[in-house]
Amino acid sequence: MTETAGARAGARKTSGKGVKVERIYTTPGVHPYDEVNWEKRDVVQQNWKTGETIFEQRGVEFPDFWSVNASTIVTTKYFRGALGTEAREQGLKQLIDRVVLTYVKAGKDHGYFANAEDAEIFEHELTYALLHQVFSFNSPVWFNVGTKSPQQVSACFILAVDDSMDSILNWYKEEGKIFQGGSGAGLNLSRIRSSKELLSSGGTASGPVSFMRGADASAGTIKSGGATRRAAKMVVLDVDHPDIMEFVETKAREEDKIRALRDAGFDMDLGGKDITSVQYQNANNSVRVSDEFMKAVEAGTDFGLRSRTTGEVIDTVDARELFRKLAEAAWECADPGIQYDDVINDWHTNPETGRITASNPCSEYMSLDNSSCNLASLNLLKFLKDDDTFDAKKFQQVAELVITAMDISICFADFPTEAIGKTTVDYRQLGIGYANLGALLMATGHGYDSEGGRSLAAAITSLLTGAAYKRSAELAGVVGAYAGYARNADAHKRVMRKHQSANDAIRTLDTMDTAIHRAATKAWDDVVKVGEKNGYRNAQASVLAPTGTIGFMMDCDTTGIEPDFSLVKFKKLVGGGSMQIVNLTIPRALKKLGYTGETIEAIVEYIADKGHVIDAPGLKTEHYEIFDTAMGARSIEAMGHVRMMAAVQPFLSGAISKTVNLPENATVEEIEDVHMQGWKMGLKAIAVYRDNCKVGQPLSDGGSTAKDAAASKDSAAAEAKVEKVIEYRPVRKRLPKRRTSQTTSFAVGGAEGYLTAGTYESGDLGEIFLKFGKQGSTLAGVMDAFSIAVSIGLQYGVPLETFVEKFTNLRFEPAGLTDDPDVRMAQSIMDYVFRRLALDHMDFDTRSFMGIHTAAERARQLETGSYTAIEADTESDEELEDELENFSQSAPVSKPAAAASTPAVEGKALDADAVKSGAGAASAREVSVEVHSSAELLEKFQGISADAPMCMTCGTKMRPAGSCYVCEGCGSTSGCS
């Protein structure tokens, strides 16, 4: 990382006064930590597939109202210091203090506070808001601030590349440094001349798509280097680039390759060992379209493609045909997305410095080349009061507090390159946003795809950005406007008036959005008035990010702008175990709609059984839309998502990280309509995802493509034909093309190795692979040959016990102690391998006859005299449900700091959140051992597989969050901040 001198200087210009810091939640003389109850928890995280413990830290301290999931994710992701050492953070207090005190010190050093009292109020309010999950900074703040590491606070970066080999190679280098830190970057390749143009030497240029291969390979190599997420990148190409058709079809062609390789038996699942052979899989692609192009599509005329060096038209395409190709490619593989160039730059506050040409990987941050943006998101549900009114005053106060802290961070932040550091310090782009919009709309009785829902969302977003720019103007009067403001003053003020005008156009429908809109109108009046006098501290203020990991930190039901994923959630419990919990906002929404206690009970009971509200007893059909979700029986239609994005877009400095999900049977024409309507409604960017369009995902119908079906039919016919031939010789039973396998690492006498065992669908062993560390090519070849020989033997029907009998007790070096508790000593590597295979794949009686037992079985024999397990008495499902019926029927929704008494099932304390919904026993039920996330719980209700990848850390099925995926098990994301 490169420390930027300008960042340290931080524009110390002051006027002898500080920004006014108000008390919002805290009491003078009382520290926020003293107002909550603290408890010690053990955080143990396992990969449920392998059973391997991937993290363990015991006795960590958290408030009692924090969920198990939130404390687990914060401990594993954000606590710093080596495990088992005194340097390791032991509780939430240390984490929050590390960050907050760094911000307070920088605020004092750079003249943000008028006096010590303001600084103390700032410290206490920031601490309270983080402690009570009112908001959260983006992940890099938690990773880096207050540590000895470079204090990078930004998750979003935009790079630049010019039409020269030096610039292209520098692009590879800068992108790699960003990936190394676990962040992502985007850039526009349109300056690189096309493959239809000549080089100065007379040869033909390679074109940007060619150079994308090298960058993609680099990202694929570095992607595992980040602390919490894989490398994420965005590649943009202008629609008038001569290579646009090749760019559009790039990933669709690779998807065809993936299908062909999968059908040939290669492992092409996301994370599979063979997927790395496919190109362009580490980036999101987007086409930058202009109004000129979109109008040509409407008119059905030709569109000119321009030389990168001269700007003249060197080729033409049919605009509708190219637009169709865009939709077809998105239909096939979800790429490319669309970015609307003229809309983006019409809302640009710094056009005199340069155009906005690219975005970050998730398309919410759009600003100058070589810039960065740090993010923070407010938890909207924290501002919904007990009387179901939205506290607009506190919302504005918190927004002003958070934007102040975000600006302070630029004063001490480090950046990956000097160019990014200079641009960020000069323009100070910030990205305040929110999470839990979907939950807020449901709790207040608003349908996500309704006029009332959109009006409320628009008013909230307008107030958020208005409050942020109001504070930015006030900060400019204290510590100075951003360095690039003077040359862009007219443009910046023009954009502020555009926001204000959009706010005036909001049509409110009820008392809630009217009150919020009134506050927003006042805020925008102050923005224009104070900004005219002081200028602005920040070139940008707001975006809507995915809020993946930080959404879990805040215990949010929904991420970013997204609707609720499903009506029934998977929830971990204090003391262990898990429950399916009916969405906690449903009873509150039903109460607001006028339903009584018994009817609410019946509806929630129905949802717990069915996972949806269709035909729920006593529920009016006109209220169904309030409970529509992203997935499930009543999923929100594609244009419902587009309309919500359009409602809030005019009130954001940047854009929105969101993917419009479409069902598998969606047509290319529907995607064309989404792209066209996104432009007409004034969006800055849009991306679509059609269920099951990518091979590297679990299939949503649990079945196969037409090609798979045909192959299966041919295979069945071939097998039937074989069965009619009487042959007195063994017949080889090959493993299916896609099979389950398990890899075990082991050490015998200091020699390390890996054993991979593949199985048939029945679970019978069908193949093995042996690899040893630090081996020569000769031994590697011998082990490969040995593995093939044993595998073929197994497939021809040689019983596993025969191999176990022949290879156990073989004596040769290396031999001795192992790291396997079930096989503590081995006389050779072969002795260990086949004992391990026996334990994993042979029945108890057979291996017991051979004297092969697990550690638990040997311990049992010492205690009871028998290796055989004694089956424990277990309660029936009916008995368990009877106990659940004893839960409190209407536990009140208390403030976060309040201690809640929680009932227990089988000695396990149930989270207060699990029963505070007022739904009684219907809202909490045990889930089967096969369910590990809300996505898998939804599969249980739907009877089909969710089209989402598995987490590479803990094996849990992820769920959508913005334009990426997030894991409920460990908080990992597929590339977003």
UniProtKB/TrEMBL annotation:
<dbReference type="InterPro" id="IPR000788">
    <property type="entry name" value="RNR_lg_C"/>
</dbReference>
<dbReference type="Pfam" id="PF12637">
    <property type="entry name" value="TSCPD"/>
</dbReference>
<dbReference type="GO" id="GO:0071897">
    <property type="term" value="P:DNA biosynthetic process"/>
</dbReference>
<keyword id="KW-0846">Cobalamin</keyword>
<comment type="similarity">
    <text>Belongs to the ribonucleoside diphosphate reductase class-2 family.</text>
</comment>
<protein>
    <recommendedName>
        <fullName>Vitamin B12-dependent ribonucleotide reductase</fullName>
        <ecNumber>1.17.4.1</ecNumber>
    </recommendedName>
</protein>
<dbReference type="GO" id="GO:0050897">
    <property type="term" value="F:cobalt ion binding"/>
</dbReference>
<keyword id="KW-0560">Oxidoreductase</keyword>
<feature type="domain" description="Ribonucleotide reductase class II vitamin B12-dependent N-terminal">
    <location>
        <begin position="43"/>
        <end position="133"/>
    </location>
</feature>
<feature type="domain" description="Ribonucleotide reductase large subunit C-terminal">
    <location>
        <begin position="154"/>
        <end position="689"/>
    </location>
</feature>
<feature type="domain" description="TSCPD">
    <location>
        <begin position="733"/>
        <end position="839"/>
    </location>
</feature>
<feature type="region of interest" description="Disordered">
    <location>
        <begin position="881"/>
        <end position="904"/>
    </location>
</feature>
<dbReference type="InterPro" id="IPR024434">
    <property type="entry name" value="TSCPD_dom"/>
</dbReference>
<dbReference type="InterPro" id="IPR013344">
    <property type="entry name" value="RNR_NrdJ/NrdZ"/>
</dbReference>
<feature type="compositionally biased region" description="Low complexity">
    <location>
        <begin position="890"/>
        <end position="904"/>
    </location>
</feature>
<dbReference type="Pfam" id="PF08471">
    <property type="entry name" value="Ribonuc_red_2_N"/>
</dbReference>
<keyword id="KW-0170">Cobalt</keyword>
<comment type="function">
    <text>Catalyzes the reduction of ribonucleotides to deoxyribonucleotides. May function to provide a pool of deoxyribonucleotide precursors for DNA repair during oxygen limitation and/or for immediate growth after restoration of oxygen.</text>
</comment>
<dbReference type="GO" id="GO:0004748">
    <property type="term" value="F:ribonucleoside-diphosphate reductase activity, thioredoxin disulfide as acceptor"/>
</dbReference>
<dbReference type="GO" id="GO:0031419">
    <property type="term" value="F:cobalamin binding"/>
</dbReference>
<dbReference type="InterPro" id="IPR013678">
    <property type="entry name" value="RNR_2_N"/>
</dbReference>
<keyword id="KW-0547">Nucleotide-binding</keyword>
<dbReference type="GO" id="GO:0000166">
    <property type="term" value="F:nucleotide binding"/>
</dbReference>
<keyword id="KW-0237">DNA synthesis</keyword>
<dbReference type="Pfam" id="PF02867">
    <property type="entry name" value="Ribonuc_red_lgC"/>
</dbReference>
<keyword id="KW-1015">Disulfide bond</keyword>
<dbReference type="InterPro" id="IPR050862">
    <property type="entry name" value="RdRp_reductase_class-2"/>
</dbReference>
